[in-house]
Write a structure and sequence with these properties.
With about 260 residues, the chain is of the alpha+beta class. The protein has one domain: Roll (2,3-Dihydroxybiphenyl 1,2-Dioxygenase, domain 1), CATH 3.10.180.10. About 20% of the residues lie in helices and about 40% in strands. It is built from 5 helices and 16 strands. It has an 8-stranded mixed β-sheet. It has an 8-stranded mixed β-sheet with strand order 10-11-12-9-13-16-15-14, with helices on one face. It is globular.
């Protein structure tokens, strides 16, 4: 089983401001907008970090799942961990693991050459877990949610080059790690007392809930060649900045040089 982290989805109320923050702070221009998310009552933007993507969705009508998530967690923040597998067999293996562990499929779509499965955030105990595959099978290039290869026509960021890890918080991080391990089919590793699941190109890290917002996707590690530039730009935008970290769209971004 090889799960590749291809996309992280955040959710926020003010998409225009979040877009300006992301483009200014990380030097990541929007590379794709998907009008199809309107059927879920949302609008979105995607930005490339190497061959991975940061998506932000925002409700444009009442009664959306994203809006309820914003209310439940008290504001903007992490929403989805989106992975790519090689083929239907690997997706079906995760589907079977999910069923065996009482996790519902929240959304399932077979679009011929693109196959999406989203696992329920409540059952995953904090965030959507999406596993998808397509007929191209290029884990470093073609990505249907970003317009196939359309995203490559937009200049890449000069300072952000990838997403190294996603951090999921919980009152019991070891139990949460064991749950995600059982569903993903990947083992838990111990890194200095911190449980971790290694994906093919990134990691999932499980930590205590220390911000009082409850279970969820709280932080990302991003690969950068200029953490100082990012922090200075964040300060200019009036965003919270600490040593090696900025907070944007309710999410802690750890800057890894």
């Amino acid at each position: 089983m090889a799960l590749h982290l291809r996309q992280i989805c955040l959710v926020g109320r003010d998409l225009a401001t979040i877009r300006a923050d992301l483009e200014t702070v990380f030097g990541m221009p929007v590379c794709h907008v998907d009008p199809a998310v309107a059927k879920f009552g949302l609008e979105n933007i995607l930005l490339a970090a190497g061959s991975q993507f940061l998506e932000v969705v925002s409700p444009i009508q009442e009664g959306t799942a994203a809006g309820r998530y914003l209310d439940r967690r008290g504001g903007d923040g992490g929403y989805m961990v989106i992975t790519q597998v090689r083929d239907k067999a690997e997706q079906d293996a995760v589907r079977a693991n999910a069923a065996a562990n009482g996790v519902r499929v929240a959304y399932d779509s077979d679009r011929g050459d693109w196959h999406i499965m989203q696992l329920h955030p409540g059952d995953m105990r904090g965030a959507f877990f999406e596993v998808e595959w397509d007929n191209v099978g290029d884990v470093c290039g073609h990505w249907t949610p970003a317009g196939g290869t359309e995203w490559q026509d937009v200049p890449a960021s000069n300072v952000v080059h990838g997403i190294l890890a996603a951090e999921l918080q919980s009152d019991d991080p070891h139990a949460l790690a064991a749950h995600w391990s059982a569903v993903s089919g990947l083992p838990v590793e111990d890194r200095g007392g911190v449980p971790r699941i290694a994906l093919a190109n990134a990691a999932l890290r499980f930590v205590p809930d220390e911000d009082g917002r409850g279970p969820g996707l709280g932080a990302l590690d991003i690969a950068t060649t200029d953490a100082a530039r990012i922090q200075n730009a964040a300060k200019t935008r009036g965003l919270p900045v600490t040593d090696g970290q900025v907070i944007l769209c309710g999410t802690r971004f750890n800057l890894i040089e």
